[in-house]
Amino acid sequence: MTSNTPNSGEPFVPTKLIKHFQANHTTRDAQTSGWSALWDSQQNDLWDRGKPSPALIDLIESAPWPSRERRRPKALVPGCGKGYDVVMLALHGFDVYGLEVSPTGVETARAYAAKQLDAPLAHNYGEGNQEKYPKDQRGEVTFMAGDFFKRDWEGKCVREGETFEGFDLIYDYTFLCALLPEMRRDWGRRMGELLGPQPAKLVCLEFPLYKDLKLPGPPWALREGIYYDVLAGGGTGVFDNDEAAQSALQQPNKGPLERVARIRPSRTYPQGEGTDHLGIWQVKSW
Fold this sequence. Notes:
Layout: H1 16-24, H2 31-40, H3 54-62, E1 74-78, H4 84-91, E2 95-100, H5 103-118, E3 141-145, E4 169-172, H6 184-194, E5 201-206, H7 224-231, H8 242-247, E6 257-263, E7 277-283
Parallel strand pairs: 1-2, 1-4, 2-3, 4-5
Antiparallel strand pairs: 5-7, 6-7
Helix pairs in contact: 4-5
């Protein structure tokens, strides 16, 4: 695959994933069918990372995660893929909901979770930390087929006798970058609806930050300013050059969320080494 890195000196060659969407799934309405077709044809290896996010593991293990009274913290992973991060979070004591557009994807994730929850691999933990998270403290895993932008799946996230108060953690890795740029404003709106009150956090592993904004996706190129524009600025998050994206960071915070931290993780996937950042957000203080 030719490099997507700006100024690499190499011509851009669309990947198989990009060609798939350019051929038949260029509109917003066709996005769900586009991803489902790849799952059904067993081409989910086009984006599969093979393990949970090292950056998220390190963040979760760095300090106890705040939870609500009388229950475990509740997490959502939209666009959860095979369920690597869903399972990892459950092993760390969260009740976790993995959302995928494809029923085939959901069944694949359930099969993966059944094996890992019974005998988890070491890649679910930081080095030497597995014994700190005993089996009797693990959370529950629920996988759902649904459209993130609709509300019909939300009822599955409430147990009997419980009132839904939003999620204590939402994790986005390759979900935003998989969406058409025109969908970013709605992504931000939904995050504001689904995230619980403080101290709940939205954690975004910002990727790909290295890709030229003018190149097609998925994955679509992202920048720090794009996240800020959508979540804090209340904007569209659509920019075609780095200068415009950077200028978005100067906007007043009139969006649904506020950023409380942005860090470069010491560990991440090879695809984002040297560029990935973790952005951490919460419902805005008024």
